[in-house]
Automatic annotation (TrEMBL), chain A:
It is found in: Membrane. One of its GO terms (biological process) is transmembrane transport. It holds the Pfam family AA_permease. Coiled coil: none annotated. The keyword Transmembrane applies. GO terms for cellular component: membrane. This is Amino acid permease. InterPro entries: AA-permease/SLC12A_dom (IPR004841), APC_superfamily (IPR050367). The keyword Membrane applies. Residues 1-43 are annotated as: Disordered. The lineage of its organism: Archaea, Methanobacteriati, Methanobacteriota, Stenosarchaea group, Halobacteria.
UniProtKB/TrEMBL annotation, chain B:
CDD domains: USP-like. Residues 112-233 form the UspA domain. The lineage of its organism: Archaea, Methanobacteriati, Methanobacteriota, Stenosarchaea group, Halobacteria. This is Universal stress protein. It comes from Natronomonas salsuginis. Pfam families: Usp (PF00582).
Length: 483, 244
């Protein structure tokens, strides 16, 4: 084992991760080499890379397209009026500012674990633990948020067929879907990736048709009056606070990096999938808000709440439109929730591989070949959070925890460029360093300031607990980049 | 002396799949790429599976390797955790220039080898596999062709003679080679029927087409129906294939 820095010529033994946690476990050894099609350990064991560019894009888009279109339009329009489109644009710009540095890191470290892996390897174990545990909990908050959204859509389906309940069925439905998803992922769903690609394809088709029609309509092509109103009815501050709220819609691109170890030709496909998926969904979001606010005006839109898009579609094409959007909303929120639960389980694996959580946590059961402990560890807390039914707080805490990580990703790029360790050889280098990542970091941390105090409080609490956990459980573990 | 072809032998290493009796003897004259692989469900990271089961898989692979080596084969091993078994097998064929994949099955006495031939495409690789495997044995080799309706007996005969000449050129005794031409039934049924008296089959894979995607590769179907080892000779892999 080597302490301190890497030898200046980069020819000796690379520094290894070292130390032990309370349970006496050490970090796993890093692979010998990484090729386009496999990761090779000790020249003997290989891990096949099986996700192509389409699959990577589907993970990114599939995780993201749910919230921004099918949950937020009503809420966002209520907060910021038509300027909510600007909020989504701000979110998209920040996501892009982070996706670029994340792409550089991903091409230098094409390993599963995503943002956690980048930060822990470049800034040390303490930052890594806070980010890793924070990412895990952030994904749990995000999954819970998607499941509540799914609950709203499922409830809207019941309302559509005329079933009325005395109590709102939203939370119970979210819980049922939460249990079902956890069970499905433990029991071994076959071909989840193929289904994901299909779902994303169907969604994009429905949305493109709907938004094209809606935009033409909003621009007056069909001779219809749009609701005229002020662009900033609630002032400029509301635009930023809404951007902070809806930023959850952009968390998905980082999920691509959590499966980086499975992606073929990572140096090409990872950046393309991350940046590409952010661009695609940003366009869809902005157009959606534009269409939705021109159809009804922001105030009426916000009265429709989480399923406002269904009413927008009904306004345009009647019942068939409403049914199509209901279906799309179910698919989208379901696929987002599913992707987040799986990413949460991948994060547990990344943490236990590095001895920051017990190895037991990523144990695989022989019957199904699935990590049941990690999946249950995600599913359990998700159900607790779904039970709160607090869409906005769940979304903001998820955003908060991700934004901290995103800011640190930007800082990590600056730090690595400055230190320039021999193993750091990204095949994609972002331009304008350090200005661009510095703006990214400032924007990420800055957006946090616009959140409601409750969300900030919960987020800081999570970070504090993560840090204390690290000090107690894995204080001597050091993680180093070695590729 | 002929060049030793590389034959890929894929084994689902953690599922207790073992090598059928006689496999070592069958492969004693060739280079074997023994691929131990394990298919990981999509919701599990391959690395996670590796962390827990690598040692067990390596031990098992080493056992199989020494069994093959003691029968005289030259063996190289690879262990891969993958989401898609077929992708891994394809990559191994490509990276190691494997001429054929063995679908193993029990074999006792190697008296008769059936070699179905479709046309002139790929004959070169077929001949190299047959020579590599069986030149130094006593097995008789049946070159088998199912003629198309518009194909004359003469054409069919010319095709098989050509292959037979190639085999005798590399030193296989003419007396060991038999030629059979069939007409009528579908190729698949004819091959399965002829295979009843055979101990092993060497046949080419067909080009993937819509029909093979829907119904599976004919070679794989033969392997399913036939009780005995089947060598599936691989198409030439184009250089620098694009996979996204």
């Amino acid at each position: 084992m080597v302490d301190g820095d890497v030898d200046p010529f980069g020819e000796g033994v690379p520094p290894e991760s070292s130390g032990r946690n309370v349970g006496g476990e050490s970090p796993e050894i890093d692979p010998e080499s990484i090729s386009d099609e496999a990761t090779i350990h000790d020249d003997e064991t290989e891990l096949e890379r099986t996700i192509g560019l389409t699959g990577g894009l589907a993970i990114g888009i599939g995780t993201m397209i749910g919230a921004g279109i099918f949950v937020f339009p009503g809420l966002a329009a209520g907060n910021a009026g038509p300027a909510a489109a600007l909020s989504f644009a701000i979110g998209g710009v920040i996501a892009l500012l982070v996706a670029l540095p994340a792409s550089e890191l991903a091409t230098a470290m094409p390993r599963s674990g995503g943002g956690y892996f980048f930060v822990s390897r470049s800034m040390g174990t303490a930052y890594g633990s806070v980010v890793g545990l924070g990412l895990w909990l952030g994904l749990i908050f995000a999954s819970a948020f998607y499941l509540v959204g799914l609950g709203h859509y499922a409830a809207a389906v019941f309302a559509e067929v005329g079933l009325i309940f005395s109590v709102s069925p939203v939370v119970p439905l979210g819980l049922v879907f939460g249990v079902a998803l956890t069970g499905l992922s433990i029991g071994g769903t076959e071909n989840t990736a193929k289904i994901q690609n299909l779902v994303v394809g169907i969604l994009l088709v429905i949305l493109t048709l709907f938004l094209t029609y809606g935009s033409l309509n909003a621009l007056g092509v069909f001779g219809r009056e749009t609701a005229p109103e002020a662009f900033f009815p609630k002032g400029v501050f509301s635009v930023f606070s809404t951007a902070a709220l809806v930023f959850t819609s952009y968390l998905g691109f980082a999920q691509v990096a959590t499966v980086a170890g499975d992606i073929q030709k990572p140096s090409r496909n990872l950046p393309l999938a991350m940046v590409g998926s952010v661009l695609v969904v940003a366009v869809f979001y902005i157009v959606t808000i534009f269409v939705a606010t021109s159809a009804f005006g922001a105030d009426r839109l916000s009265e429709f709440g989480e399923t406002a898009m269904v009413e927008v579609a009904r306004e345009f094409v009647g019942r068939p439109g409403a049914v199509a959007i209901l279906l799309a909303g179910l698919l989208a929120t379901f696929s987002s929730a599913n992707a987040s639960i799986l990413s949460a389980s991948r994060t547990v694996y990344a943490l236990s591989r590095d001895a920051l959580l017990p190895k037991k946590a990523s144990e695989i059961n022989l019957r199904y070949g699935t990590p049941h402990v990690a999946l249950l560890a995600a599913g359990g807390p998700i159900l607790l959070l779904v039970a709160t039914g607090q869409v906005e707080v769940l979304a903001e805490v998820a955003s908060f925890l991700h934004l901290i990580m995103y800011g640190l990703i930007c800082v990590a790029v600056i730090a690595l460029r400055r230190r320039d360790p021999p193993w750091y050889e990204p095949s994609y280098r972002i331009p304008v360093v350090p200005a661009l990542p510095a703006v990214g970091a400032a924007a990420s941390f800055g957006l946090v300031a616009f959140m409601r105090p409750a969300s900030i409080g919960i987020g800081i609490g999570v970070m504090l607990i993560s840090y204390l956990w690290y000090r107690y459980y894995a204080g001597t573990v050091t993680l180093k980049g070695a590729f | 002396m002929h060049e030793k072809p590389t034959i890929l032998l894929p084994v689902r290493i953690l599922e207790g799949e073992s090598l059928p009796e006689g496999t070592g003897k069958l492969l004693s004259n060739v280079r074997v790429l023994l691929l131990g692989y394990h298919v990981v469900p999509e919701q599990t990271a391959p690395g996670q599976m590796q962390m827990q089961f690598e040692d067990r898989a390596q031990d098992r692979l080493a056992e199989l390797e020494s069994a093959l080596e003691s029968a005289g084969a030259t063996v190289e091993t690879r262990l891969v955790f993958t989401h898609e078994g077929q992708k891994t097998i394809d990559r191994m064929i490509y990276e190691h220039g494997c001429l054929a994949v063995l679908v193993p099955d029990m074999v006792r006495d190697l008296d008769d080898v059936l070699v179905p031939i479709r046309g002139t495409v790929g004959v070169d690789r077929l001949v190299r596999v047959v020579t590599g495997l069986f030149a130094d044995t006593d097995a008789s080799i049946t070159l088998f062709h199912v003629a198309e309706p518009d194909e004359t007996d003469e054409d069919a005969r010319t095709l098989l003679d050509g292959v037979a000449d190639r085999l005798t050129d590399v030193g296989i005794d003419e007396e060991r080679i038999r030629l059979t031409i069939r007409r009528g039934d579908g190729a698949l049924d004819s091959i399965t029927e002829a295979a009843e008296s055979a101990d092993a089959i060497v046949m080419g894979e067909t080009d993937p087409s819509i029909a093979t995607f829907v119904f599976g590769m004919p070679a794989e179907k033969v392997a399913d129906r036939f009780v005995g080892p089947v060598f599936i000779v691989q198409r030439e892999r184009p250089d620098g294939i694009e996979r996204d």
